[in-house]
Design brief:
single chain; about 140 residues; alpha+beta
């Protein structure tokens, strides 16, 4: 998906995902991914609302990030996230007409803190592309 590739390139990330809210369900469905190991893809094909970084970003309608998901003690990062081998990661809600319709996340293989400017750009970009997506 070009939208995901553009976000990864803009933020110098190594991987990314886009999840879309399933119609009538409190579940996020994987729409696109880049650089995510196959064993992790199996786990994130459907993400419950409020679970993991993507589910929390959707539930809170706020960005969820981790400087290093390998070492963080935050309950925002689920044990399965460590299987990605990534460290710095951020997931933002994709908001369309005031409602969360999905999430956009990117990650790096190295420790990384995303700046306020990067976070603001990712939020705006996610909302910009939100209306163009359909579940895979």
């Amino acid at each position: 998906l070009e939208a995901l590739d553009a976000a990864i390139a803009r933020l110098g990330a190594d991987s990314g995902t886009i999840h879309i809210k399933a119609p009538g369900r409190q579940v996020l469905v994987l729409a696109s991914s880049r650089g995510i190991p196959e064993q992790v893809l199996e786990v994130v094909r459907e993400v419950p609302w409020g679970k993991g970084m993507a589910g929390l970003a959707a539930e809170r309608a706020q960005p969820v990030d981790a400087c290093n998901i390998q070492t963080t003690t935050s309950s925002d990062v689920r044990p399965g996230a460590r299987a990605t081998g990534l460290q710095g990661a951020i997931v933002v809600p994709m908001i369309l007409h005031g409602a969360v319709v999905g999430t956009l996340g990117v990650g790096n293989r190295v420790e990384r803190t995303f700046t306020a400017e990067e976070t603001d750009w990712l939020l705006a970009y996610g909302s910009e592309v939100a209306g163009t997506l359909e579940p895979a």
